[in-house]
Amino acid sequence: MDTKLIQNKLKSHVPSILGSADFTKYAVLLPLIEKDNEIHILFEVRSHRLRRQPGEICFPGGRMDKQDKTNQDTALRETTEELGISLEKITDVFPLDYLVSPFGMLIFPYVGEIDDPESITPNPSEVEEVFSVPLSFFQNNSPKIHYVNLQMKPEENFPFELIAGGQNYNWRTGKIEEYFYIYEDKVIWGLTARILAHFIEVLR
Q1: Using one digit for the tens of pLDDT, what is the confidence trace for 68-124?
Q2: 17 falls in which pLDDT band (50, 70, 90)?
Q3: 140 FRET partner, CA 20 to 30 A, in 69, 101, 193, 202?
């Protein structure tokens, strides 16, 4: 391979996150509604019949399907399916920063307004209930942050003999920030709380 061919390959390359082609991609919508003459944020409680994270609080959203042309399409499709509303009910949609999960996931959050929230009919196979919290609550109350330590644990047949330091190699350690908001009897935490905290920071 000559340098000209290498240059042509590099010219046509569009940079992205290394390894992201193998990541599972999700998109969620942070829904805003008007209630009692105030802006509220709408949340879902996941159905207790779901295999993953039953009973947890989240935003509508899910995994990107082949029919979705964009991440925003995913967020809107999942929202209409989970809340039982038409696409026309969701307006003024804007992207937030996306998250790279240490567990091989890319999450693309959006913010959008839901008109006529009284028409919401949650899909019982996915959503146990919906509730809302005044936006002002999150603007006036910072999240509590706790940490989960990450530990590097090589597999049994890891080739220590090939690396400097061998068995005594000094692996990097790290920790994950877990955000928590508590509103009345509701605990909003994890990626949902992290996205929420980012949204509030953007508003500031």
Answers
A1: 999 999 999 999 999 999 999 999 999 999 999 878 899 999 999 999 999 999 998
A2: confident
A3: 101
Sign of CA dihedral 32, 52, 105, 147: positive
Alpha carbon distance 129, 126 (integer Å)? 9
Residue 59 tokens, joined: 């935003």
Q: Side chain identity at 110, as an amino acid letter?
A: Y
Look up the pTM and report it.
Answer: 0.89
Rounded distance between C-alpha atoms, residue 64 and residue 97, angstroms:
17
Q: Dig out the tokens for 170 from the structure.
A: 């000094």
H or E element at residue 195: helix 190-203
User: Long-range contacts: 74-78, Cβ < 8 Å, 24+?
Assistant: 74/25, 74/26, 74/27, 74/108, 75/27, 75/28, 75/29, 75/108, 75/109, 75/110, 75/112, 76/29, 76/110, 76/112, 78/27, 78/28, 78/29
Q: Any long-range contacts for 178-184 (C-beta under 8 Å, 24+ apart)?
A: 178/145, 178/146, 178/147, 178/148, 179/143, 179/144, 179/145, 180/143, 180/144, 180/145, 180/146, 181/138, 181/141, 181/143, 181/144, 182/144, 183/133, 183/137
Helix/strand/coil for 3:
helix
Q: Which residues contact 16 (CB under 8 A, 6 or more apart)?
A: none
